[in-house]
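User: Is it possible to get a 3D structure for a protein together with its bound compound? The compound here is S-adenosyl-L-homocysteine. I've pasted both below.
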Amino acid sequence: MLLDFSKEELIDYVVKLGFPKFRGSQLFDALIQGKRLDEITNLPKNFLDKIKDEYPNFYIEKKLESKDGTKKYAYRLKDGQIIEGVFMKYKYGNTLCVSTQVGCRMGCKFCASGLFGLTRNLTAGEILEQVIIANKDNRKSLDERAITNVVLMGSGEPLDNYENVTKFIKLLNSEDGLNISQRNISISTCGLVPYIYKFADDGFTVTLTISLHASNDEVRKKTMPIANKYSIKEIIDACKYYFKKTGRRVVFEYTLVKDVNDKEIHIKELSNLLKGFPCHVNIIPLNFVKERGLLASGDKATYNFAESLVKNGVSATVRRTLGSDIGGACGQLRNSLIKNNNSN
Ligand code: SAH
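Assistant: Yes, that's possible. Here is the predicted structure of the complex:
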Protein backbone atom coordinates (compact mmCIF):
# COMPACT_ATOMS: atom_id res chain seq x y z
CA MET A 1 0.00 0.00 0.00
CA LEU A 2 1.38 3.32 -1.11
CA LEU A 3 0.68 5.14 2.16
CA ASP A 4 3.09 2.79 3.94
CA PHE A 5 5.93 4.67 2.23
CA SER A 6 7.64 7.81 3.46
CA LYS A 7 8.06 10.47 0.75
CA GLU A 8 11.59 9.26 -0.02
CA GLU A 9 10.52 5.62 -0.19
CA LEU A 10 7.64 6.54 -2.49
CA ILE A 11 9.93 8.45 -4.85
CA ASP A 12 12.31 5.43 -4.96
CA TYR A 13 9.35 3.18 -5.75
CA VAL A 14 8.20 5.44 -8.58
CA VAL A 15 11.72 5.66 -10.05
CA LYS A 16 11.97 1.84 -9.98
CA LEU A 17 8.72 1.68 -11.95
CA GLY A 18 10.51 3.74 -14.63
CA PHE A 19 9.03 7.20 -13.99
CA PRO A 20 10.81 10.47 -13.13
CA LYS A 21 11.21 11.57 -9.50
CA PHE A 22 8.76 14.45 -9.75
CA ARG A 23 5.96 11.97 -10.45
CA GLY A 24 6.72 10.52 -7.02
CA SER A 25 6.34 13.96 -5.41
CA GLN A 26 3.06 14.54 -7.23
CA LEU A 27 1.79 11.15 -6.14
CA PHE A 28 2.82 11.85 -2.53
CA ASP A 29 0.88 15.15 -2.54
CA ALA A 30 -2.22 13.43 -3.94
CA LEU A 31 -2.02 10.79 -1.20
CA ILE A 32 -1.61 13.28 1.66
CA GLN A 33 -4.49 15.37 0.30
CA GLY A 34 -6.65 12.24 0.21
CA LYS A 35 -7.45 12.45 -3.49
CA ARG A 36 -9.25 9.47 -4.92
CA LEU A 37 -7.72 8.11 -8.15
CA ASP A 38 -10.40 9.78 -10.27
CA GLU A 39 -9.63 13.15 -8.65
CA ILE A 40 -5.98 13.12 -9.72
CA THR A 41 -5.62 15.30 -12.81
CA ASN A 42 -1.86 15.91 -13.00
CA LEU A 43 -0.62 12.33 -13.48
CA PRO A 44 -0.69 10.42 -16.80
CA LYS A 45 -2.96 7.43 -17.26
CA ASN A 46 -0.13 4.95 -17.89
CA PHE A 47 1.34 6.00 -14.54
CA LEU A 48 -1.98 5.67 -12.66
CA ASP A 49 -2.56 2.24 -14.23
CA LYS A 50 0.76 1.06 -12.79
CA ILE A 51 0.02 2.19 -9.22
CA LYS A 52 -3.75 1.79 -8.93
CA ASP A 53 -3.72 -1.60 -7.20
CA GLU A 54 -1.60 -0.17 -4.38
CA TYR A 55 -3.55 3.09 -4.09
CA PRO A 56 -5.70 3.38 -0.91
CA ASN A 57 -9.51 3.38 -0.98
CA PHE A 58 -10.12 6.71 0.81
CA TYR A 59 -13.71 5.58 1.27
CA ILE A 60 -16.21 6.45 3.99
CA GLU A 61 -18.69 3.59 4.38
CA LYS A 62 -20.84 5.43 6.93
CA LYS A 63 -20.76 8.69 8.88
CA LEU A 64 -22.77 9.66 11.96
CA GLU A 65 -22.77 13.31 13.05
CA SER A 66 -23.59 14.62 16.50
CA LYS A 67 -24.99 18.03 17.44
CA ASP A 68 -21.78 18.78 19.33
CA GLY A 69 -19.66 18.30 16.19
CA THR A 70 -18.49 14.77 16.97
CA LYS A 71 -18.44 12.47 13.98
CA LYS A 72 -18.18 8.70 13.89
CA TYR A 73 -16.73 7.21 10.75
CA ALA A 74 -16.73 3.69 9.36
CA TYR A 75 -14.11 3.37 6.62
CA ARG A 76 -13.91 0.56 4.10
CA LEU A 77 -10.41 -0.66 3.31
CA LYS A 78 -9.13 -2.01 0.02
CA ASP A 79 -9.72 -5.64 1.05
CA GLY A 80 -13.30 -4.93 2.17
CA GLN A 81 -12.60 -4.75 5.92
CA ILE A 82 -14.44 -2.08 7.89
CA ILE A 83 -12.75 -0.05 10.63
CA GLU A 84 -13.95 2.94 12.60
CA GLY A 85 -12.84 6.24 14.01
CA VAL A 86 -14.17 9.26 15.88
CA PHE A 87 -13.62 12.95 15.17
CA MET A 88 -13.98 15.24 18.21
CA LYS A 89 -13.95 19.03 18.50
CA TYR A 90 -12.13 20.61 21.42
CA LYS A 91 -11.22 24.22 22.20
CA TYR A 92 -7.57 23.56 21.39
CA GLY A 93 -8.21 21.78 18.10
CA ASN A 94 -9.70 18.70 16.54
CA THR A 95 -8.84 15.19 17.65
CA LEU A 96 -9.15 12.02 15.63
CA CYS A 97 -9.35 8.64 17.32
CA VAL A 98 -7.86 5.93 15.07
CA SER A 99 -8.06 2.13 15.03
CA THR A 100 -4.87 0.11 14.91
CA GLN A 101 -6.24 -3.38 14.22
CA VAL A 102 -9.31 -4.94 12.62
CA GLY A 103 -10.86 -6.30 15.81
CA CYS A 104 -8.70 -7.01 18.86
CA ARG A 105 -7.43 -10.06 20.70
CA MET A 106 -7.22 -8.61 24.22
CA GLY A 107 -10.77 -9.68 25.11
CA CYS A 108 -11.60 -6.98 27.71
CA LYS A 109 -15.03 -7.76 29.13
CA PHE A 110 -16.51 -4.26 28.72
CA CYS A 111 -15.28 -3.59 25.19
CA ALA A 112 -17.11 -4.12 21.90
CA SER A 113 -13.96 -4.15 19.74
CA GLY A 114 -12.90 -7.64 20.72
CA LEU A 115 -16.30 -9.34 20.49
CA PHE A 116 -15.23 -11.15 17.33
CA GLY A 117 -11.51 -11.41 18.14
CA LEU A 118 -8.67 -10.15 15.97
CA THR A 119 -9.11 -10.26 12.19
CA ARG A 120 -5.78 -8.68 11.25
CA ASN A 121 -3.31 -5.93 11.98
CA LEU A 122 -3.61 -2.64 10.12
CA THR A 123 -0.55 -1.47 8.20
CA ALA A 124 1.01 1.91 9.01
CA GLY A 125 -0.55 3.25 5.81
CA GLU A 126 -4.02 2.02 6.74
CA ILE A 127 -3.82 3.84 10.07
CA LEU A 128 -2.63 6.98 8.28
CA GLU A 129 -5.43 6.59 5.73
CA GLN A 130 -7.97 7.23 8.53
CA VAL A 131 -6.32 10.56 9.41
CA ILE A 132 -6.14 11.61 5.77
CA ILE A 133 -9.82 10.81 5.13
CA ALA A 134 -11.02 12.64 8.26
CA ASN A 135 -8.73 15.57 7.47
CA LYS A 136 -10.19 15.80 3.98
CA ASP A 137 -13.74 15.50 5.26
CA ASN A 138 -13.33 18.31 7.82
CA ARG A 139 -11.09 20.88 6.13
CA LYS A 140 -12.47 23.99 4.48
CA SER A 141 -9.58 24.47 2.07
CA LEU A 142 -6.95 22.19 0.56
CA ASP A 143 -4.18 23.64 2.75
CA GLU A 144 -6.05 23.57 6.06
CA ARG A 145 -4.99 20.90 8.53
CA ALA A 146 -8.30 20.00 10.14
CA ILE A 147 -6.86 17.30 12.41
CA THR A 148 -4.46 18.70 15.02
CA ASN A 149 -4.39 15.79 17.48
CA VAL A 150 -4.47 12.03 17.06
CA VAL A 151 -5.25 9.41 19.69
CA LEU A 152 -4.59 5.71 19.09
CA MET A 153 -7.63 4.66 21.07
CA GLY A 154 -9.96 3.08 18.55
CA SER A 155 -10.32 -0.64 17.93
CA GLY A 156 -7.26 -2.75 18.53
CA GLU A 157 -4.34 -2.86 20.93
CA PRO A 158 -1.64 -0.58 19.46
CA LEU A 159 1.28 -2.25 21.23
CA ASP A 160 0.11 -5.64 19.87
CA ASN A 161 0.87 -4.18 16.40
CA TYR A 162 4.12 -2.46 17.39
CA GLU A 163 6.00 -2.22 14.07
CA ASN A 164 3.08 -0.80 12.09
CA VAL A 165 2.00 1.55 14.87
CA THR A 166 5.46 3.04 15.40
CA LYS A 167 5.91 3.43 11.65
CA PHE A 168 2.55 5.22 11.55
CA ILE A 169 3.63 7.64 14.29
CA LYS A 170 6.78 8.44 12.30
CA LEU A 171 4.76 9.00 9.10
CA LEU A 172 2.23 11.19 10.93
CA ASN A 173 5.03 13.13 12.50
CA SER A 174 6.96 13.64 9.27
CA GLU A 175 7.42 17.21 8.00
CA ASP A 176 6.68 16.04 4.47
CA GLY A 177 3.33 14.66 5.52
CA LEU A 178 0.72 15.84 7.99
CA ASN A 179 3.44 17.02 10.39
CA ILE A 180 1.57 16.31 13.65
CA SER A 181 3.98 16.61 16.55
CA GLN A 182 4.42 13.82 19.11
CA ARG A 183 3.04 16.17 21.78
CA ASN A 184 -0.27 16.04 19.97
CA ILE A 185 -0.40 12.23 19.75
CA SER A 186 -1.60 9.82 22.48
CA ILE A 187 -1.30 6.06 22.52
CA SER A 188 -3.64 4.00 24.68
CA THR A 189 -2.67 0.51 25.80
CA CYS A 190 -4.02 -2.16 28.12
CA GLY A 191 -0.42 -2.45 29.33
CA LEU A 192 1.84 -4.74 27.28
CA VAL A 193 4.78 -4.14 29.61
CA PRO A 194 7.80 -5.14 27.45
CA TYR A 195 6.55 -2.89 24.64
CA ILE A 196 6.20 0.10 26.98
CA TYR A 197 9.94 -0.20 27.74
CA LYS A 198 10.72 -0.68 24.05
CA PHE A 199 8.59 2.32 23.09
CA ALA A 200 10.53 4.52 25.52
CA ASP A 201 13.88 3.09 24.36
CA ASP A 202 12.96 3.65 20.72
CA GLY A 203 12.73 7.36 21.50
CA PHE A 204 8.99 8.01 21.27
CA THR A 205 7.62 10.87 23.37
CA VAL A 206 3.87 10.74 22.71
CA THR A 207 1.44 10.76 25.64
CA LEU A 208 1.24 7.29 27.11
CA THR A 209 -2.24 6.32 28.27
CA ILE A 210 -2.82 3.15 30.25
CA SER A 211 -6.21 1.43 30.40
CA LEU A 212 -6.00 0.49 34.07
CA HIS A 213 -9.65 0.10 35.08
CA ALA A 214 -8.81 -1.52 38.43
CA SER A 215 -7.00 -0.77 41.67
CA ASN A 216 -5.76 -4.30 42.31
CA ASP A 217 -4.87 -7.35 40.23
CA GLU A 218 -7.85 -9.45 41.36
CA VAL A 219 -10.38 -6.88 40.18
CA ARG A 220 -8.41 -6.29 36.97
CA LYS A 221 -8.46 -10.01 36.16
CA LYS A 222 -12.26 -9.91 36.30
CA THR A 223 -12.51 -7.63 33.27
CA MET A 224 -9.12 -7.70 31.53
CA PRO A 225 -7.49 -11.03 30.57
CA ILE A 226 -4.13 -9.27 30.09
CA ALA A 227 -4.01 -8.88 33.90
CA ASN A 228 -3.14 -12.58 34.09
CA LYS A 229 0.08 -11.79 32.25
CA TYR A 230 1.24 -8.47 33.76
CA SER A 231 0.58 -7.13 37.23
CA ILE A 232 -0.42 -3.54 37.96
CA LYS A 233 2.92 -3.08 39.71
CA GLU A 234 4.81 -4.14 36.57
CA ILE A 235 2.73 -1.71 34.51
CA ILE A 236 3.35 1.20 36.87
CA ASP A 237 7.09 0.44 36.97
CA ALA A 238 7.11 0.58 33.16
CA CYS A 239 5.21 3.90 33.29
CA LYS A 240 7.78 5.31 35.70
CA TYR A 241 10.49 4.31 33.24
CA TYR A 242 8.56 6.02 30.43
CA PHE A 243 8.23 9.19 32.50
CA LYS A 244 11.94 9.15 33.35
CA LYS A 245 12.90 8.79 29.68
CA THR A 246 10.41 11.25 28.22
CA GLY A 247 9.35 13.65 30.99
CA ARG A 248 5.77 13.08 29.82
CA ARG A 249 3.04 12.71 32.41
CA VAL A 250 1.29 9.36 32.05
CA VAL A 251 -2.51 9.17 31.83
CA PHE A 252 -4.51 6.35 33.42
CA GLU A 253 -7.96 5.47 32.13
CA TYR A 254 -10.39 4.11 34.68
CA THR A 255 -13.78 3.06 33.34
CA LEU A 256 -16.23 2.74 36.20
CA VAL A 257 -18.19 -0.51 36.21
CA LYS A 258 -21.00 -0.83 38.73
CA ASP A 259 -20.15 -3.08 41.68
CA VAL A 260 -16.86 -4.15 40.08
CA ASN A 261 -14.35 -1.30 40.58
CA ASP A 262 -16.36 1.67 41.95
CA LYS A 263 -16.24 1.25 45.76
CA GLU A 264 -14.51 3.29 48.51
CA ILE A 265 -11.84 0.61 48.87
CA HIS A 266 -10.95 1.00 45.18
CA ILE A 267 -10.56 4.77 45.59
CA LYS A 268 -8.21 4.14 48.49
CA GLU A 269 -6.17 1.50 46.68
CA LEU A 270 -5.90 3.57 43.50
CA SER A 271 -4.80 6.65 45.47
CA ASN A 272 -2.09 4.65 47.20
CA LEU A 273 -0.88 3.24 43.89
CA LEU A 274 -0.58 6.57 42.12
CA LYS A 275 0.15 9.14 44.82
CA GLY A 276 3.39 11.00 44.12
CA PHE A 277 3.69 9.82 40.52
CA PRO A 278 3.22 12.63 37.94
CA CYS A 279 0.11 11.30 36.25
CA HIS A 280 -3.52 12.05 35.56
CA VAL A 281 -6.52 9.76 35.95
CA ASN A 282 -9.37 9.92 33.45
CA ILE A 283 -12.56 8.55 34.97
CA ILE A 284 -14.70 7.21 32.13
CA PRO A 285 -18.39 6.46 32.43
CA LEU A 286 -18.94 2.95 31.02
CA ASN A 287 -20.54 2.96 27.61
CA PHE A 288 -23.17 0.25 27.66
CA VAL A 289 -22.41 -2.67 25.33
CA LYS A 290 -25.43 -4.94 25.07
CA GLU A 291 -23.46 -8.14 24.48
CA ARG A 292 -21.27 -7.46 27.50
CA GLY A 293 -23.98 -6.94 30.12
CA LEU A 294 -21.92 -4.74 32.47
CA LEU A 295 -23.51 -1.63 33.99
CA ALA A 296 -22.28 1.94 34.47
CA SER A 297 -21.91 3.35 37.97
CA GLY A 298 -24.10 6.43 37.53
CA ASP A 299 -23.20 10.13 37.59
CA LYS A 300 -23.08 10.54 41.36
CA ALA A 301 -20.68 7.67 41.96
CA THR A 302 -18.61 8.77 38.97
CA TYR A 303 -18.07 12.35 40.18
CA ASN A 304 -17.57 11.17 43.74
CA PHE A 305 -14.83 8.79 42.55
CA ALA A 306 -12.94 11.57 40.77
CA GLU A 307 -13.36 14.08 43.61
CA SER A 308 -12.16 11.57 46.18
CA LEU A 309 -9.02 10.86 44.16
CA VAL A 310 -8.29 14.59 43.99
CA LYS A 311 -8.78 14.87 47.78
CA ASN A 312 -6.24 12.07 48.14
CA GLY A 313 -3.70 14.03 46.09
CA VAL A 314 -4.18 12.32 42.72
CA SER A 315 -5.00 14.46 39.67
CA ALA A 316 -8.29 13.19 38.23
CA THR A 317 -11.18 14.32 36.05
CA VAL A 318 -14.29 12.75 34.60
CA ARG A 319 -14.00 12.42 30.87
CA ARG A 320 -16.46 14.67 29.06
CA THR A 321 -18.94 12.67 27.07
CA LEU A 322 -19.00 13.72 23.43
CA GLY A 323 -21.36 12.53 20.75
CA SER A 324 -23.77 10.90 23.18
CA ASP A 325 -26.62 11.37 20.69
CA ILE A 326 -24.81 9.23 18.12
CA GLY A 327 -23.89 6.76 20.84
CA GLY A 328 -21.78 3.71 20.58
CA ALA A 329 -18.66 2.57 22.38
CA CYS A 330 -15.42 1.53 20.78
CA GLY A 331 -16.18 -1.01 18.03
CA GLN A 332 -19.96 -0.77 18.03
CA LEU A 333 -20.42 1.03 14.72
CA ARG A 334 -18.23 -1.52 12.97
CA ASN A 335 -20.06 -4.41 14.64
CA SER A 336 -23.44 -3.05 13.55
CA LEU A 337 -22.25 -2.81 9.94
CA ILE A 338 -20.79 -6.32 9.97
CA LYS A 339 -24.04 -7.72 11.40
CA ASN A 340 -26.11 -5.92 8.76
CA ASN A 341 -23.90 -7.34 6.03
CA ASN A 342 -24.21 -10.84 7.42
CA SER A 343 -28.00 -10.70 7.58
CA ASN A 344 -28.38 -9.34 4.03
N1 SAH B 1 -6.49 -1.42 23.38
C1 SAH B 1 -6.23 -0.08 23.77
C2 SAH B 1 -6.96 0.98 22.98
C3 SAH B 1 -8.38 0.73 22.61
S1 SAH B 1 -9.61 0.84 23.85
C4 SAH B 1 -6.47 0.08 25.25
O1 SAH B 1 -6.79 -0.90 25.91
O2 SAH B 1 -6.24 1.16 25.79
C5 SAH B 1 -9.71 2.54 24.18
C6 SAH B 1 -10.26 2.87 25.54
O3 SAH B 1 -11.69 2.67 25.58
C7 SAH B 1 -9.69 1.99 26.63
O4 SAH B 1 -9.39 2.73 27.76
C8 SAH B 1 -10.84 1.03 26.85
O5 SAH B 1 -10.68 0.39 28.06
C9 SAH B 1 -12.03 1.94 26.73
N2 SAH B 1 -13.29 1.26 26.54
C10 SAH B 1 -13.54 0.15 25.85
N3 SAH B 1 -14.82 -0.19 25.93
C11 SAH B 1 -15.42 0.72 26.70
C12 SAH B 1 -16.77 0.90 27.16
N4 SAH B 1 -17.74 0.05 26.85
N5 SAH B 1 -17.02 1.98 27.93
C13 SAH B 1 -16.04 2.85 28.24
N6 SAH B 1 -14.76 2.73 27.85
C14 SAH B 1 -14.45 1.67 27.09
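Residues 124-138 form the longest helix (15 residues). The first strand starts at residue 60 and ends at 65.
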